[in-house]
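Is this the right way to post structure tokens for a design question? Let me know if I should format differently. Anyway, here goes:
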């Protein structure tokens, strides 16, 4: 979404009624269903269910490099443009709030730190954690984990600028280094699953 001449990301806060990650900030999206022909169908269906975004109102641009969530599910982000006039209608069963953040915030944040994170395989890692003060909602949102990872990666691709914090990418070879990072993560997960058989 473009607002006031700047790219913004639409984010949601998961309902406190949900079993997994209640109250966490995330992008609209979710698990694929049999009716979905691909990740784009899944993303569009879920955005409609969660925030009332009609699929025909989205100009899909691309899919980004997948990630693996804390439950070891493969997550493929889908990037699209929506009109700045879009008014979200949160589904209270799934979403408690909807807000937007300037994309540039994910390379030049006002409030950033890294958090230690233990992967399901027991490996200690670090994740991005942003605190975003939304003046429109008069609230502060914590954006971290895979959501922050995808937001940072998209900002790096779009702006091509070095962020004000460290990232696990070769910024001169962003796409190939992101592919290598993903393949290493996937390989370690596969090896762990294989050793548990």
């Amino acid at each position: 979404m473009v607002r006031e001449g700047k790219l913004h990301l639409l984010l949601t806060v998961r309902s406190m009624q949900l079993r997994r990650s209640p109250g966490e900030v995330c992008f609209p999206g979710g698990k694929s269903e049999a009716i979905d022909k691909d990740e784009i169908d899944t993303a569009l269906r879920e955005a409609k269910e969660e925030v009332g975004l009609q699929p025909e109102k989205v100009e899909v641009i691309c899919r980004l490099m997948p990630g693996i969530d804390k439950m070891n599910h493969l997550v493929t982000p889908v990037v699209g443009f929506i009109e700045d006039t879009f008014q979200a209608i949160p589904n209270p069963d799934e979403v408690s709030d909807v807000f937007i953040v300037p994309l540039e915030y994910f390379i030049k944040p006002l409030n950033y730190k890294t958090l230690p994170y233990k992967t399901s395989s027991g490996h200690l890692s670090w994740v991005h954690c942003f605190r975003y003060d939304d003046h429109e909602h008069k609230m502060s949102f914590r954006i971290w984990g895979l959501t922050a990872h995808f937001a940072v990666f998209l900002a790096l691709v779009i702006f091509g600028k070095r962020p004000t914090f460290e990232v696990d990418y070769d910024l001169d070879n962003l796409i190939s280094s992101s592919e290598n990072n993903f393949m290493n993560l996937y390989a370690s997960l596969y090896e762990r699953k294989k050793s548990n058989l």
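Format looks fine. Someone answered above. Worth noting: The helical segments are 39-51, 145-159, 174-195. DSSP finds three helices and eleven strands in the chain.
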